[in-house]
Structure formats: structure tokens, C-alpha cells
Structures
1.
Amino acid sequence: MIIQIDKLNKHYEKHQALKEVSLSVQTGSIFGLLGPNGAGKTSLIRILTQITEADSGTILFNGEALHPKHIYQMGYLPEERGLYKKMTVKDQVLYFAELKGLSNSQAKEKLKYWVDKFEIKSWLGKKVEELSKGMQQKIQFISTVIHEPKLIILDEPFSGFDPINAQILVDEILLLKEKGASILFSTHRMDSVELLCDHIALINHSEKILDGNVKELKQAFKKNQYEIKYSGQALTTLELMQLVETQMNDGIVTQLFQIPDGVHINQLLQSLLQEPISLISFQEKLPSMEDIFISAVQQKNLTN
């Protein structure tokens, strides 16, 4: 494990930001820290990056008690972006790289790689304030990863990105993972981590309410629902299923069904094959991260 957090607590005056939060981030994985704004995600990250201190609890980094030396092995992209507007792009990136322990010559070599990769040579002499928000985001990202940290912490990394640049960032995150980096990804937009994260933890009102492998959680929270798309006459096999919702678009019917306990999927398939319809698709409907979050909150409320 690159990160092991045990029973972390943090108070700000009368507000408890974190309550007995424990979680582990596997080395070489993408870990999603999910939850609504104000849930405690950023408080946890600020403790991890040693901007603030926890009231109690422990953090291990690669098996060692968290220490200031570990900052040099981290890259942190904060939600509140922190570039110096009057500095040029080149000076800015080199400055941050040297703060993280690179020599000037090493920083210049690493910068050349990112200049070629993002095709930003024409930006180097510009002041940050002259760049668009999307361009500034790219520079902030480069400044976060230029020293090749073991742990990359991204707090709302897609904020302000258009869809094209967001996809560029997704591709880079996945490539960094392939190269061995561990990535902690904090966001309140649960849809943005569906395809990225290996593991997630859900934080709500300062408490961790759920964590685990993404695929396993989807299986654990599924509701035995199936989506059918077809054209033609209405289905007559409804006695085997409970209709949840129906949508129609350009003659294509999309229906979501709940299959009762005791009904085997093979029975449903055999019935569908006898229907006078043109079957387009038939697939199990797995819950989204938002669905899982809502279910986990409801279960937590029932136990309180």
C-alpha cells in the first residue's frame, strides 16, 4: 500500500471535518475519493499533503509514518488552482519542479518532454494571465507531475476543462498509472470516475460510509435489473418481469425491468426469442456510482 490511513479525525472550531476515517490506497492504482462538496475530502487531502495536521489518527506512506520528506514524492493538483499570473509558463513550471527536488537541468529536460507532448512551445514565453483557463489547467497539471511523483493527488481535476481537454487529461492519468504512479482522485462528480478508478471510498458528512473495488461494489449493489432495446410490437412476456421504466425514441423502445427472485435469466431469454420483435440489445443494468452512493447513504441512515 502506498497510503494507509487509520482513524483520522479533524475538527475546525465547532465543525468536525473528518470522523474516524480509515482507508488504504494500493500502489499503482487509481483511487477515487468521492462525495458531495463539504463532505471532508479536501480536509483529508490537506492532512495527507501536510498543509494541516489531523487531531488524531495515523497515516503511513509506503509503510513509513508520514514525514515532510514524503512531500517530494507527491504531486498535488488543488481544487483552487495556484499559478503565479505574472510569471511566464517556462519559469513557473521550472520553479515548481525545483521546489520538488529537481535540479535546473533536470527540470528543463522534463519540461521538454511535456512541451512536445502537449505541443505548447509557443506558450513558454507567455505570462500565465495571458492563457485561457484550459491552457492554465494544462500548465497546472504539468507542474503537478513533472517531478514524476509516486503519489499524484488530483482534487476536482476536470473542473474548467472542455470535453476534449478533459479526455486528454483522462488519457494522461491512465498513462501515468501504466508507468507505475499511484493516483488519488477526489471529486463530487461521481460519473467522471466510472471508467478511471480501480477502488473508491465514499465520504459523507465527514464519515467514510463505503469503500471497495469498483467492479465488486457494482455487483454488490445491483438490483437484478435488465435493459431491453427493441423495435416492433409491445412485449407480452411482462408476467416474468416488473417494468421499471419505458422510453421511446425514433421507434426504438428502451425498457428497464426488474426480474423477481426465482426467475432465471434463461427463462426470460427464451420468452424474448419468441416475441414478434426486433431485439436490438439486452444487458444487465449495473448501478452507477451515484446510485451506489444514494443506497449507501440510505443504509447508513437506517443504522443510525
Note: The longest strand covers residues 15-25.
2.
Amino acid sequence: MKPILQVSGMHTYYGRSHILFDVALSVYEGETVCLMGRNGAGKTTTFRSLAGLTPPRAGEVVFKGKPCTRLPAYRMARLGLGFVPEDRRILGPLTVKENLELGKVPGRKGPWTMSRVLDQFPVLRDMPHRLGGTLSGGEQQMLTIARALMGNPDLLLLDEPSEGLAPVIVAELRRLLLQLKQMGTTILLSEQNIRFALAVTDRVFIIDKGHIVYSGGIDDFRRNTELQQKYLSV
């Protein structure tokens, strides 16, 4: 079985600053994969490189069998890549429903309609006319994920989804991701919260100073406390 996403030899820069070094990772359809690492390790840059926001200077990104290393973000979205950024990017002056409408991607069809998304996110269903800027951090995170699903992605990228959220919201987010997983959604997320990652993930990659330093199944990662201590400061 070929992976839905295959990355090899990826190098990414910000100006003259070399951030990612020879990054390689893979995601198979229907699984949840977590990219872990400390702050500044390169997680967000990896996601921006995959989403077409910060194109790599070298290497190869193959999505659904198509080389797309330097495609712009809008073309990656049309191919079926949904991106939930760390800073959420909710449009505050627009309502919840209007923010969701903006998540639709021209030419993409699938099971995620407005009614289904709202059914999946009860907190949003009860406030369709609330302005995005008046939502709590947890509500905004749910809205950002729901907006990405409106594009009917084949792969959902979640950058630090639990960061800054209260424990009760993190628990709700965990429930949501497990439910999406049961529905067959393919997810690549970045995280620092090990407990959260252990609850939702099938495989783990660890990035440190722009290098992938570990890849393995979740059971191996769970047992390897020395690895966790070395790269994640647990």
C-alpha cells in the first residue's frame, strides 16, 4: 500500500536561515500520525512546507501519488489537503456559519456538508450566528477544524491543536479526533502534549532542530521513556 503522503529529503529555509534538514515522513490513508518536538524544533515549518505556504528548496513531497513539492497553497487545498494552523486564523467579524462557508474548496465534493459539520460540532451548531471574534479559544479551535472539514480534505493537517486549551477542552478535542479517526479521516498532527498524542495517534515522528530523529509505532514510543526525556523534556 502506498502512502497518501510521502516526504523525502525536504529542506526548507526562511530567507538564508536553514530550518528543515532532509525531512522524511509518510502518512497512510486512515491513520493518525503525530509529529512531535519542542518549541522551535521545526513542526510548524514542516506543516507550512506541506501546505504550500513555505515551499521547500529541495526534496520531494508526493501527495496522492502526485509530486507537489512547490505547489501553492490553493492548489494543495484543491488536491485535498486541509490545514488547521496553530494560530487558527478565524475571521472575527464573520459569523460561525460564514467562517464555515469560507472553508469550501472549489471543485471538492464529499461527505462534509454544512449540516453534517454542525452535527459533528454541537458547540458550533448552537451558535451559528455568533461572531468568530467573540468565541473562546476552544470554540475557535473547533471552528477552525470544522472549517477545514468543509473542504472535504483527504488529509487533515492539525498544527498544535491542543496548545493553550483548558483540560476540559483538550478532552473534548481528543474525543473529536478519535471520532474522526473512526470515520476514516486521515490526520497528520503536530503536538507537544504527550498524553494527548498517545490517546489519538498510530505512529510518531520526532523532529529536533529541523531533523527527524525518530519514527515508530505508538506502542514503541510509549515504552521509550528515555527518548521522550531526551527530545520532549518529559
Note: The chain has ten helices and ten strands.
3.
Amino acid sequence: MINRPTLFLAFAVALTPLSAKAESAVTIPPPAADASAQSTGLETAVLAGGCFWGIQAVYQHVKGVTNAVSGYAGGAQKDAQYDTVSSGRTSHAEAVRVTFNPREISYGKILQIYFAVAHDPTQLNRQGPDTGPQYRSEIFPQSDAQAKVAKDYIAQLDAAKAFKRPIVTKTQTMKAPFYAAEAYHQDYAINHPNQPYIAFNDAPKVENLEKMFPDVWRDQPVTVAEAAKTN
């Protein structure tokens, strides 16, 4: 098992802090165009981009999101646990399942936040101090419509030269199973705000969300624990 706090302390001196807005970002175009606002009921988005702690923390502060769960996606196995996924020997990626109300926030806006502040889409099989295919940048569409929106948006970002380096984000061609991570991983950034790894890598992402997307920012984050009480 990778001990993230230990990993952080070992490499902190050698690493230059990365802004939660990807260091290679120049401009971020408007959110991807999609028709999800016409949908009824809740929708889900599954996104991978490094350690799930930070991505979960970002979406927990987004208006219209009813739940954000850390977990694993993209693997062929019928189950996933942190011990095996963190070894890098499985095909799973750490991911977050974002449940949202499309009448309050669109899938396109979810993706805009993903590319703008949740992670750096130009880093291949890594994010900050975390390296390996389990930390890859990948979108797991939950429908054909989501797949089209995601692919079109990546093309839009490339055409706009929004990043100085190439976008390496993959999109799954078929719906991948999602497995919720262990309980101690849920709400991790909220429960451990002063941990060095969280303070250095994830807190800036949440701060940039507030600065860059004040229209969807909410002070009180939705937690997995609270979401479970309402379901």
C-alpha cells in the first residue's frame, strides 16, 4: 500500500507545487455543449485524474452535485480494493463518481471543472507526486451522449490550445463498472484538512474552484456521510 503522507514528505523538497489550475493551462473555453439540462432525474459522471481525494473534494463543493464518491473504475476485474489498485498491477484507475442534478449543473460544466481545476490533463499516468496507470487521466462516460460530449470537448480544448502540452485524457468506449473505495477514503480531504498531502496537493484545487467558478461554488460541501442519510 502506498502511504501518501510518507510519499509526500519524501519528495516535497524536490517537487515544485502545482496549481490546481493545471500549470500548462492558458485559457479554459466555455463548458462543453450538451443537452443534459433537458434530462429528468439525477445523472452520474465518473472521472479519473490522480488521487481521488482531491477530485472528490472539488466536486463536494459544487452546486448541483448531490454526492461524490471515491472509488475505482476502468479495470477488467469484478472487484477492486486499494491494496491491489495502488500497486499499479491492475487496470483500474482511482476515480470519483459524481452524482448531479442536470437541471442545476450540466455534464459540460462538470467536465469544464474537471479540466480546469480538478487535475492536470497533460500529465500521463501521474498527478503531482503520484505515479502509475492508476493515476491516469480518464473519463468514463455513462452513456453514448456523455461519450460524445467528452470527446467533442477534448477536441474543443485542443483546437483552442487551452494547454501548452497535449491533452492525454482518455475516454472509455464502453461503460466501465465503478467500485466505491473503502470507507476511510470517503470525505478524506474534509476529515483531514491539515494532513500535508491534502494541504499541499488538494486544498489548492478547492481554493481555485471558488476563485474560478464562483457561480457553482458552495461553502458547505456535500459529504458521502450526509448523502447516505438522505438516500
Note: The domain at 23-226 is CATH 3.30.1060.10 (Peptide Methionine Sulfoxide Reductase; Chain A).
4.
Amino acid sequence: MIKKILLGLLALVVLLVVIGFFLPGKIDITKSISIQAPAASIFEEINNLEKWQHWDYWNTLDDNMQVTYGDKKEGIGASYSWDGPNVGKGSMTITQSEPDKLVGLDINFTESPAKATYKIESSGENSTLTADFLYDNGLNPIARWIGTFIKPEVEKSFDYGLDKIKSIAEAKPKFSIAITEETVSPVSYISISHTMSPKDHEAVSAQISKMFGELYGVVAKAKVQMAGPPFCLYPSYTEESMDMVCAVPVPANAKLPAKYKIQQTSGGPVVKGIHKGSYHTINGVYTQLDQYIANKKLEINGAPWEVYITDPEEVKDTTQWITEVYYPVKH
């Protein structure tokens, strides 16, 4: 009887192995979803591995899962590993990262890594996010059986994750101006400071014109070439009073009267917004930049400044004036 049972089990194992050779050698899955949000709002959720905890399906399966991040958490080379009683052990590394377009990953949970990609196709506020998963089971029949059981879970994980990313991206604030995160270089400049009420726009404009007029006269008399467009820093601002520093960039070694000491901005990471129109309507840019910084959980690191790209003396149509607004932020 025991011999028959053993022979029966052996026959079953052989049958399963034989069937395994005929099962699919690869797991190849593609899922897409339409999202009413710009590409940047989607890309940042995938390119930053810390954000995966808010939408990744596998995190919902194991409350005791331990996650360990690598030295990088965002962009190419970013990685994390997991270990949990329900999901086992594994790791993931970002191998491709094209801003607002693509994130590619290697996922290791067996001997051979799986490949996953998230592609974004966008037109303004409308985007399509496509997730692809590819795993080669090879010729190992056991791996092919495992792949057969894994595939439905991977499909479920994509459905869950894409829906979550959609809800997160569509809930983000919408901005009517172009906002970017950049790193700027230090700028050498001379300046004049003044404190006044911000309530009278005409008075503010007149004061700015007066200060820039003096600065332009100084560099012209010294025969110094300006090293960029003029700008104003605002070290403090309330509804009643503001400190205003009007500045013109100059070479660091420029020879100027001692009264006009050459200073230098610190440079570093900034959030930049572009305003088109009269200076009287620029407050809306600051409001949107404040919302962006709060949404991104960034920390302001100094006084904001405005760079006046358009010369009002040359372009009289205020609708064509371009002003760049910068907020310095911490890394």
C-alpha cells in the first residue's frame, strides 16, 4: 500500500513537472490608466521610492514588513529592500529615470530579476500611465508553476497601484503658472535697500525705478558690464511693511565705488515660478509657489527674489513682461 502511494506521488510529481514545461515561460503584463493630472504630478510618485508606501499594493499585505532604503531614495540608483512574514524577502532598484516620462526598475524576489516600467504620456493636464511587468521563468518547471500563481497577484497589484496613483495625482493642487525645482549658481551684485509699505503699488514702482536708476548710473559711470538681469530680494514682508533690496549683477572683480559693496547670493536649490504680466498682479505667483512648497513638504531657506527678464523701457506692453520669482529651499 505504501509502495503504491509513493508511486502515485511520484507519478503526480512527474506529471506536474511535465505540465510545468508547457506553462508560459514568461510573465508579461501591461496595464494603463487615464489620469487628469500633468506628468510631473505622476512621475514624482513613482520616481521617489518613499512615496510608494502611499500606493503600492504589496504594502497592504503585510503590516509587519520591514523596509530598508538604500543611500538614494529617488532617481537612478535609488533602492529599497523588504522582509516580511507574508511577502517574503526582496529588493527593488530604479535603473531608468526620465523626468515626467519613464521610470524603470529591477525587482528581485527570486533568482532572476523581474523588470517593471512605468511610462507617462501627457498632453497638458491629461496623462496616460502605463505599467509593464516582465519576468522570465526560464526552463525551470517549478518556476513556471510559481509564475502561474504570481501573475494574478501582479495584475491585482497594478490595478490597485494605478488607481491609487490616479487619486493622489488628481488631488494635487493645480497651478496656472510654470513652476520648476532648480539649482542656481551664486550671483555677485551691488544693491540698494529700502523699507516701505507694500500697499501703494505706484509708490513701490516709483521707488524701485529710483533705486535701479541709481544702480544703472553707478555701473555705467564705472564702465562695468552688468552680468545679468536686475533683481529684487524681499528679506521681510508684511501687509504693513516690506524690506526691499534692489540689485544688479556685476562681475565679482568689478571696480566700483566703495559705497556699493559687491555681495553674493548663496545659490543652491530653489523653486521657481514664471509670471507674465504687470508687476501689480505678481502676488498670485507667490500664492501658488507657497501652495507648491507646502504640497511638496519643502522648507523655505531664505528671502525670495524677483528677476526682471523684460525691460519695461523697451517693452511697453505689460502683458508681455516676464518676471521670474525664486524661493530658496533646503535640500
Note: The chain has five helices and 15 strands.
